[in-house]
């Protein structure tokens, strides 16, 4: 649904900005892994496409609020960083398919990198409500870009932090420590959100341990509602056939081992409908 919401609070969290917006309809329908499409630039803007942000938190205040977390990476996020309390924002959401949750109380490792970590706390909350054990592995380039370390320490059974420059936790990447964490906690499942190469690495580790992995991808998006095909990526279906699927509506959450990470940004020749073979191969 589309909501014109009032900005309730703005805050800085190290390298990130967090905006809380009153958006009752979106908060009410939200499930972990959903994202919102935010109009940027105001009425006369040339920035026509909405910008996608994972929902970090929802609260019941004022009928329902949603909070999202971002860093400035271009004109749209720069405009958002200038918003103040009582400004209005045009939001569409909740968008996408959320994370599937296990039926049984299993042990889950939640892996986040950069702002992707912000997506994991509602997942952790939902898992814990089902009796699951939750362990966190969070990482980033440097300490100021590791989002949510304190909250992870409060919520998680264990929390392992990594930074590439060694300024917080262990020096390296989340994928360097993940095998040890999975083995130590005897994890049954992995949930991950972060840049595509990190999701690829996390999936490789989970597959080595033969445990399921759910990844929330951030493929470039334009419409966010399934119309424009900007966000497609090659994903293997239940029937073993690769299809170019829209990450905004069929995702952004996928089973990691189904995403053909090496082929993201291309149409593999054996994908259904691909020029020169896909349709014929699938027929
Ligand atoms: C499902 C999803 C969830 C996301 N969640 C977050 C989040 O929680 N926090 C956060 O900081 N960022 C998030 N992003 C990335 C965020 O959407 C982009 O950083 C933002 O759109 C950049 O806009 P810009 O105008 O500042 O930069 P520009 O680079 O000028 O953006 C121009 C265009 O490219 C698209 N674009 C640029 N970078 C990305 C990207 N990495 N992914 C997708 N589209 C992009 C924009 O939508 C826009 O149409 C998410 C992306 C997706 C797809
Ligand atoms: S962003 Fe337009 S179809 Fe996904």
TrEMBL record:
Source organism per UniProt: Streptosporangium amethystogenes subsp. fukuiense
Print the keywords alphabetically.
2Fe-2S, Electron transport, FAD, Flavoprotein, Iron, Iron-sulfur, Metal-binding, Transport
- What Pfam family is a match, any one? DHODB_Fe-S_bind
Can you tell me which family this protein belongs to?
A: Belongs to the PyrK family.
Highest taxon of source: Bacteria
Output this protein's name. Dihydroorotate dehydrogenase electron transfer subunit
Q: Which cofactor does it need?
A: [2Fe-2S] cluster
Taking the record's annotation, the residue ranges forming a coiled coil are: none
Residue intervals of the FAD-binding FR-type domain: 1-101
Q: Which InterPro entries match?
A: Cyt_c3_hydrogenase_gsu, Dihydroorotate_DH_ele_sf, Dihydroorotate_DH_Fe-S-bd, FAD-bd_FR_type, FNR_nucleotide-bd, PyrK_electron_transfer, Riboflavin_synthase-like_b-brl
């Amino acid at each position: 649904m589309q909501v014109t919401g009032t900005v309730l609070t703005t805050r800085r969290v190290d390298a990130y900005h967090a905006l809380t917006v009153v958006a009752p309809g979106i908060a009410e329908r939200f499930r972990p892994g959903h994202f919102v499409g935010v109009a940027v630039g105001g009425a006369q803007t040339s920035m026509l496409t909405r910008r996608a942000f994972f929902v970090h938190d929802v609260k019941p205040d004022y009928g329902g609020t949603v909070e999202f977390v971002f860093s400035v990476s271009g004109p749209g996020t720069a405009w958002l960083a200038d918003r103040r309390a009582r400004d209005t924002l045009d939001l569409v959401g909740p968008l996408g398919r959320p994370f599937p949750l296990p039926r049984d109380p299993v042990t889950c490792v939640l892996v986040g990198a950069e702002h992707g970590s912000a997506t994991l706390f509602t997942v952790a909350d939902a898992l814990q409500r089902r009796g699951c054990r939750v362990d966190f592995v969070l990482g980033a380039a440097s300490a100021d870009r590791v989002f949510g370390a304190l909250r992870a320490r409060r919520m998680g059974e264990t929390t392992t932090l990594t930074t590439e420059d060694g300024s917080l936790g262990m020096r390296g990447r989340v994928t360097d420590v993940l095998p040890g964490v999975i083995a130590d906690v005897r994890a049954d499942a992995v949930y991950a959100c972060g840049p595509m190469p990190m999701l690829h690495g996390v999936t490789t580790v989970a597959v080595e341990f033969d445990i399921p992995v759910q990844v929330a991808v951030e493929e470039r998006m334009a419409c966010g509602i399934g119309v424009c095909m900007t966000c497609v990526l090659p994903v293997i279906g239940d029937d073993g056939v690769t299809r170019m699927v829209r990450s905004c509506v069929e995702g952004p959450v996928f089973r990691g081992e189904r995403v053909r990470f090496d082929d993201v940004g291309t149409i593999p020749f054996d994908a259904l409908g691909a020029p020169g073979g896909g349709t014929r191969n699938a027929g």
